[in-house]
Amino acid sequence: MATEIEHKFLVVGDEWRDAAHARQDFEQGYLCGDGPASVRVRIEGSRANINVKAAVVGSVRAEYEYPVPLEDAREMLATLCVAPPVIKTRHWVAYAGHTWEIDEFAGENAPLIIAEIEVDSVDETFERPAWLGEEVTHDRRYYNHALAFSPYARWTS
């Protein structure tokens, strides 16, 4: 089984921007609402994929990802998604031996910025950069699937 071990954090300040060594625009939509898994289609530049993740909150989740033709992904985003697509720009930042993925959300999820780090084991330690804020790994609201159905701009608290 494919497993993702990931931690999510809010980002504070802009200090990370100068350290970003790559970036990519993403558009992703979800093909189902509730259930034991989230199923999304994502376009990343000229590539597309289907991703299935266990619908659990926490740092460890089953995850499967498969490439799909770009035109198929565009059609799925336009016709099959059960919520508006999530639009974001991902920035990659190398820091203390790890690569951080920093997602800067657009549209109704702006100005939300979340940093994620994938690790190899649940007990792996990592150095936290100064621009890292509160950990939100265990807060379902900050998962992309949740942001599709309940965008950040609509939150009341």
From TrEMBL:
A single Pfam family it belongs to is CYTH
Q: Where is the CYTH domain?
A: 2-149
Q: Which domain of life is it from?
A: Bacteria
| InterPro entries linked to this entry | CYTH-like_dom_sf, CYTH_domain, NeuTTM/CthTTM-like
Q: Which SMART domains match?
A: CYTH (SM01118)
List the protein's name.
Answer: Adenylate cyclase
Q: What is the lineage of its organism?
A: Bacteria, Pseudomonadati, Pseudomonadota, Gammaproteobacteria, Salinisphaerales
